[in-house]
Amino acid sequence: MHSTDLGGALALAIALSPVHPAWAEVGAVAAMEGESARVSNSGESVALQVGSKLELGDTLEVKSGNLKLVLTDESEIVLGAGSRLRIDEAEFKDLEHRRFSAWLFFGSLWSRVTKALAGSDAKFEVVTDRMVAGVRGTVFRVDVFAGASNDKETLVHVLEGRVGVTHRDAPHPDPAGAKPRIAELSPGERAWANRDGMRKELGTPPPKEAFERFIRSHERTAHIPKERTLNREKGPRHR
Q1: Which of 23, 28, 89, 211 is the right S-S partner for 80, CB 3.0 to 4.6 Å?
Q2: What are the two backbone dihedrals, phi and then psi, of residue 207, each rounded to the nearest 5 degrees?
């Protein structure tokens, strides 16, 4: 076969080959205990295990125990028992243009988000019935639970960095500003929202011992272990 014919054949093969878009590469299950499943866009439910790949449109259901995900940009998400999360947007071609959005219907979510540069248009959002939490690079937790009259309530707690929160489906803003629709949270602050409004306050996340223990035991860190840092500061030992 002539080189021109070979080149044409290769081009045709590439054109006809199935395309796997980058947005489908959302991440994978890094650790789990108990039972969890992913429900695809087609409605198929598949049991999850460590190493299971995640795709755009998947709904993750934690039936028991806890589930840890690592996304393509190395961000971490942990879901507690009874949580239900749907992945609505995921693009990781470039960290500075990252686009990620997931809807937490119920339960508890902890996340360590890989930091993007200030000024970039990167987006990382967790959405609930009552709030949108948008971050650039931080550690935070979101809890969704049934409040009075079975109305869903949302609590967002910031552990590191800053989180912008926006109240969803609220009535007209209080003229005195008692119920802000938008707020920025710093470490140690939280926002609480229900159908009547949103308030910003100091506070800690609701205690969930098994959830917190799972996070600690499976949390990754980019920091150098303290022992190694101290040894390096002291310099090499001479015998």
Answers
A1: 211
A2: -65, 130
